Fold:
Amino acid sequence: MVKQTWFSVLGLMGLFLLTFNACTKDENVDLSEDESVEMASRALKSQQLIGTSFGIATRGAAEVDGLINNTPEIRTDCGTITVTPADLKTFPKTVVIDFGTGCTDVDGKTKSGKVTMVVGKLWQPNSLVTLQYENYSEDGVKLDGKFSFSNSSTNTAGVYQIKADKVKITDAKNETWTWSGVHDFTQTRGHATWWDWSDDVYDVTGNIDVLFPNNEVVTWNIDQPLVKANNCYWVSKGLGLLKLNGKDIQVDYGNGTCDNVAVLTLNGKTFTIKL
Structure:
């Protein structure tokens, strides 16, 4: 059950960062439709890129799981993992994944820097995990900041909340912004088979506020719960509204098919993008 809980929660972290953000110009600039779509597409792609980095967290979770259950996980040589204290009873534990000056991970991403997690007994209600990025970079995108993950599960479903406070992102073009937000993950399938994380499905709700250097705030709101299955890397369904430079851009993730396609709607026109 430990493994199922860890992979269910921490494997979802990628989703939290997949659904929002934008690099923007001054609010008084009237962007064309093509410029708006390009910026929205770039925003969602950048979040997808950063979202994949949360696969790192599942490695740390797997390490703790292997320690507790004496079933070591198979890992690549990209990144060194340490767990302190390395016993079966003491919590919280500190899990550090150090990618050093850079290496290519199993997901094909080049990663450098360090990720530190303080891990409580997340399978217990009201427990907490924090994750801190330190000089971390993935494919040229830098991420600095702290996330917290809490458990408020019931007897019939896993329920988790993820919070971010003023997380800093610097992209490959050296443009920087910060964002804060809260997302709630409610399990809709797979709870009965707690030992099998791969059949878990979650509804995700929440919002994000993005703050740019000119003090402009860009918001992302989930209008219809996003559907995220653990056996699919992508969001397969759901609707959200991205407010960009005073314009509303609706994001539609599809009808449930597992793919990397999303449809943007702006001024009544639709634009298909790949994340």
Observations:
- Helices lie at 2-10, 13-18, 33-52, 55-69.
- The chain is about 20% helix and 45% strand.
